[in-house]
Design a protein that fits this description.
- This protein is α/β, with parallel strands linked by helices and about 350 residues long.
- The protein has 12 helices and 12 strands.
- The chain binds ligand PBG.
């Protein structure tokens, strides 16, 4: 539709929708019953009609862990560092103080500890387990999410066990169950399988229940796409260096959307408490469809590459970083997400506090 522009009634006969001008000098006026701009005229009315709100309750902060004492900057994620266990405990205390409900932990496993079987994933004293215990001791009321997937532990960087060129499904699921139990014993509140093997949610649920962990939640990375936007994360956990090939035989094809609904339906049937769509902004349509169809708690992951893009543009002075951050986060709420995993979590929490 081409919207009629106001025209000078003097030069042409006035179209019907134009109010006759009081005098030839008067400004032209459209006779509009509906003016959507009325509700936007001031801050107070914009607040009254606002449909979606971002609050600190919507944020989960993904944190990278490393051995030793040094904070290690992640070059492709300005402002993000790998933290030692001691620093992670302080970060957890800061998160709790800001009101952030939960942290998600990701380890940089020493390269010498990675092998074909991912055996370090099952070590009760691995980095993630030690961090869980330390954080739970100091900040017991903060939620802890741990990732069930083998990529930070395998010598080849895949989320599952590799035989020849194949990622083994069922064999991997047995290891994931053990990994999940290892994390639950260390105090993890939510197990988040991000591996995309078939049947892992049901197997992990059964494994947890058999050990009386029936209160441990499962946040399933249900619709996880094979994405280029994971690049900076793979720097952070050291899998860009180890990964052989790509993950397209288990992560989803970015061209698909009905398939995401099948993945989500399957994970709900297997006992997922919360489902997730990942990456975030390029997949808002998937979040929307999942929420519309199933109405279950639905999280989004604003992944490392999305963070890196906003930060890079902001650091170049090309966009306003804080505004772009908040706009991107409320977009997830608009699409139907209940919570967002985002590296911006502490920054967004501070900004929201400032604006309150
Ligand atoms: C690994 C995992 C990945 C992310 C979370 N868990 C990367 C991958 O699948 O290669 C990506 C998160 C991000 O990019 O921020 N199972």
């Amino acid at each position: 539709m081409v919207w009629p522009l106001p025209q000078r009634p003097k030069r042409q006969p006035a179209p019907e929708h134009l109010t006759p001008a009081a005098s030839p000098a008067a400004a032209p006026k459209l006779n509009l019953t509906v003016r959507l701009r009325r509700n936007r005229k001031s801050d107070w009315t914009r607040r009254l009609v606002r449909e979606n709100t971002l609050t600190v309750d919507d944020l989960i902060w993904p944190v990278f862990l490393c051995e030793g004492d040094a904070r290690e900057p992640v070059a492709s994620m300005p402002g993000v560092e790998r933290l030692s266990i001691g620093q992670a405990v302080r970060a957890a205390a800061e998160a709790a103080k800001l009101g952030i409900p939960a942290l998600a932990l990701f380890p940089f496993t020493a390269l010498g500890l990675r092998n074909e079987q991912a055996s370090e994933a099952l070590n009760p004293n691995n980095l993630v387990c030690r961090a869980c215990r330390a954080i739970k001791r100091e900040v017991p009321n903060l939620g802890l999410v741990t990732d069930a997937a083998l990529d930070p532990y395998t010598s080849h960087g895949h989320d599952g066990l590799l035989r020849g060129e194949r990622i083994l499904n069922d064999e991997t699921v047995f290891v994931l169950v053990e990994q999940a139990l290892n994390q639950a014993r260390a105090g993890a509140d939510i197990i988040a399988p991000s591996d995309m093997m078939d049947g892992r949610v049901g197997a992990i649920r059964a494994g947890l229940d058999a050990e009386n962990f029936e209160d441990v939640q499962i946040l399933s990375y249900a619709a996880k796409y094979a994405s280029a936007f994971y690049g900076p994360f793979r720097d952070a956990v050291g899998t860009n260096a180890t990964l052989i090939g790509d993950k397209r035989t288990y992560q989803m094809d970015p061209a698909n959307s009905n398939e995401a609904l099948r993945e989500v339906a399957q994970d709900i049937a297997e006992g997922a408490d919360i489902v997730m769509v990942k990456p975030g902004l390029p997949y808002l349509d998937i979040i929307f469809r999942v929420k519309e169809r199933f109405g279950v708690p639905t999280f989004a992951y604003q992944v490392s590459g999305e963070y890196a893009m906003i930060m890079a543009a902001a650091n170049n002075g090309w966009i306003d970083g804080d505004k772009a951050m908040l706009e991107s986060l409320v977009a997830f709420k608009r699409a139907g997400a209940d919570a967002i995993l985002t590296y911006f979590a502490p920054r967004a929490a501070k900004k929201l506090k400032e604006m309150a």
